[in-house]
Inverse folding.
């Protein structure tokens, strides 16, 4: 029997299900299931992100305008990217330009991949009049410390012979001089806020190379070369600016782009989901709500450390609204997900008839999950 709608709307605010569904489609499917099980329920879709891939899509779903931009991909080949713009605020997603998904043929280039295209997106936002830029880090294909990003903004990196360095983290070992050019003037009056959910420093065993280099295809000698390059980069930035942020939490994010943002762009860093919820107007969306439904591809131990569903649960709980979760896989025990603030949790794997259905039939099963939650939590 369909659940009977009661007072108060429902907010559906999931992150993407990586590899299967974008956040907007997850939200639409769960919402469809809720509406089918509880006709007449006011269901509002607000897909979220934590600063990584999907950040741009979440901003667009929240009413930002898409502005296309052709920029350099991680290996220098042009890619079609975009920024999101609303008023004087722009959202720039690193993965749009320099993400792993932008590698030609999926072939990694750990020593040569660069963040130049991200700098081009920032320049585009500034040219459009943005005075606040939210930079989402995540999914990076490069370990260049953000050198490419600032090169795109006119900063010169030169070797001992005065030749400009080519892109990529390996070349940074030859860095001898930094020319900041007109960087300060370009960014005068522009606030840059980095959305980041990691606290790694730039160097060392928890740094950009050691932790994330292998994800970008680096191993063996590559890791030594990249670490040496980042150390040289940090030393040169310190000598040129007097600022040394190599040990700052988040400096190692996105192959060290966090370092360049902090040291050279004057950026501040915020937890990704916290910043995105603020940007998307989450507090306003949940005011008077009866239920919030969030989720992601896998609800696991990482979820509890700054991932989108945990951030949504915390914000909804502060607002006095119950929270439920839908996940492709559920690897937390019931005591764990209840302690994280979830009233109910549904996994697509538990709804699937056959192994693999949770991936191949994810959209259909997300609707079923919405129905289950409506029946359990919205009846009466």
């Amino acid at each position: 029997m369909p659940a009977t709608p009661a007072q108060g709307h429902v907010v559906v605010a999931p992150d993407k299900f990586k590899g299967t569904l974008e956040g907007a489609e997850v939200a639409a499917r769960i919402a469809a299931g809720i509406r089918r099980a509880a006709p007449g329920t006011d269901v509002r879709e607000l897909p979220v992100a934590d600063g990584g891939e999907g950040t741009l899509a979440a901003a667009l779903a929240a009413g930002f305008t898409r502005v296309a931009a052709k920029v350099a991909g991680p290996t220098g080949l042009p890619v079609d990217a975009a920024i999101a713009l609303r008023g004087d605020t722009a959202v720039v997603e690193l993965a749009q330009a320099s993400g792993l998904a932008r590698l030609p043929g999926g072939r990694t280039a750990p020593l040569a991949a660069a963040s130049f295209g991200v700098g081009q997106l920032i320049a585009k936002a500034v040219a459009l009049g943005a005075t606040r830029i939210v930079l989402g880090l995540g999914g990076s294909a490069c370990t260049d410390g953000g050198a490419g990003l600032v090169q795109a903004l006119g900063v010169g990196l030169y070797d001992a012979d005065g030749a400009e360095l080519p892109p990529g983290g390996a070349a940074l070992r030859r860095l001898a001089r930094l020319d900041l050019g007109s960087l300060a003037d370009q960014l005068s009056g522009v606030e840059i806020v980095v959305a980041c959910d990691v606290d790694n420093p730039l160097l060392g065993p928890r740094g950009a190379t050691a932790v994330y280099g292998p994800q970008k295809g680096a191993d063996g000698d590559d890791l030594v070369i990249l670490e040496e390059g980042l150390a040289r980069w940090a030393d040169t930035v310190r000598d040129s600016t007097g600022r040394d942020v190599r040990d700052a939490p988040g400096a190692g994010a996105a192959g060290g782009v966090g370092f360049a943002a902090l040291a050279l762009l004057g950026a501040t860093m915020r937890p990704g989901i916290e910043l995105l919820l603020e940007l998307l107007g989450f507090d306003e969306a949940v005011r008077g709500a009866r239920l919030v439904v969030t989720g992601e591809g896998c609800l696991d131990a990482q979820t509890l450390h700054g991932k989108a569903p945990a951030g949504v649960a915390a914000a909804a709980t502060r607002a006095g609204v119950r929270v439920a979760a839908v996940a492709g896989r559920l690897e937390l025990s019931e005591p764990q997900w209840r302690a994280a603030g979830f009233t109910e949790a549904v996994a697509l794997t538990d709804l699937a008839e056959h192994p693999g259905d949770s991936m191949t039939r994810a959209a259909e099963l997300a609707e079923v999950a919405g129905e289950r939650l409506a029946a359990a939590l919205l009846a009466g």
In short: The mean pLDDT is 95. Residues 173 and 228 are 6 Å apart (CA to CA).
